Fold this protein.
Amino acid sequence: MSTRCGFVALIGEPNAGKSTLLNAMVGAKVSIVTHKVQTTRARIRGVALEGESQIVFVDTPGLFRPRRRLDRAMVAAAWGGAADADIVVLLIEAHRGLTEGVKAILEALKERGSGQTVALAINKIDRVKSETLLALTKEMNEAYPFVETYLISAEKGYGVDDLREWLAGALPEGPWLYPEDQLSDLPMRMIAAEMTREKLTLRLHQELPYQLTVETENWEERKDGSARIDQVIYVARDGHKGIVLGKGGETIKAVSQAARAELEEFLDRKVHLFLQVKVRPNWLEEAERYSEMGLDFKDGNS
C-alpha cells in the first residue's frame, strides 16, 4: 500500500479551538490551549498518523484585524501557513456562526483562488441545537464552496476521528516527512517555552495580556537522565515584573511548578526548571524575539 503525506492548515478566528483540535488529532499536547485569544504565535506543526498517511498539521495563529507589529507578524504567519498547505480546514464555532471575522476569512480565501482544497469544521457542536447546526451548515456552504463539512467537538472528541480519516485519504501520495515517533517539528526548547507561557497566561488572566514572551535560554542533559531547563520571561515594563513574580514570589513559584509537572509528563523524565523574569521594554520590536517564536519580523511591517 502506498503512503500519503502532506500539510494541513487549521485556520479560523482566535479561540475557535484550533489548538485543541490539533492536540486531539495528534494525541499529545503540542500546541498551548488557553481561553485567551491569540495564544498561538508560531506555526506549530503537529504530526498525526492515520493508517498509511502522515498528516502534518500547521496550527496557525488566529486570524484577526492586526494593530501592532506582533499582530501583523502573527496574521502573516497564519496566511503563510495556509498558502503552504495541501488542505486548509476552516474552523468556526457553532454558537457564534458566520461572524464578521469569518466573513473576512471567506473573502480572503476567495481572493486566493480555487487552487486549494478547503474543508469546513464546525466546532463546539455540543453548545447548539441540531436545527441551528443544519441552518449554519447550509449558510456556510452557500457562502463558500467547501469540499467537505464536519461537525465536531474538539474538546470532547466528537467527529475528530472522521475528520482525521478524511484528511488522511485526501492527502497526496508520497513518502513520510518525519520519523514515526515524532509529534512536532518544533524544537523541544520552544515547546518547553510555550508550556511555561501557557501556565503564565492561565495564572495571570487579564492582568498581563500579550506583553510577555518566554525563551528557553539553556537546556542541559544530566547524567542521571534528568534535564535542567533555564528560561527567561521577558516583560515590557517594570510593573509587569512584579505581577509575574507575585506577592512573595508566589505567582512565579506556582507557574514553575505547573510547567515543570507538565514538562516531566511530556518528556517522561525528571526536570529541573529555573525561571527568571527580565524587563525588556522593546522586546516587541526586536527581530530576535520574533525568530524565537518562529515568526518573521519583516511581516510585522504595515
In short: The CA atoms of residues 38 and 90 lie 16 Å apart. The first helix runs from residue 18 to 26. The first strand starts at residue 4 and ends at 12. Confidence is low (pLDDT under 50) at residues 31-42.
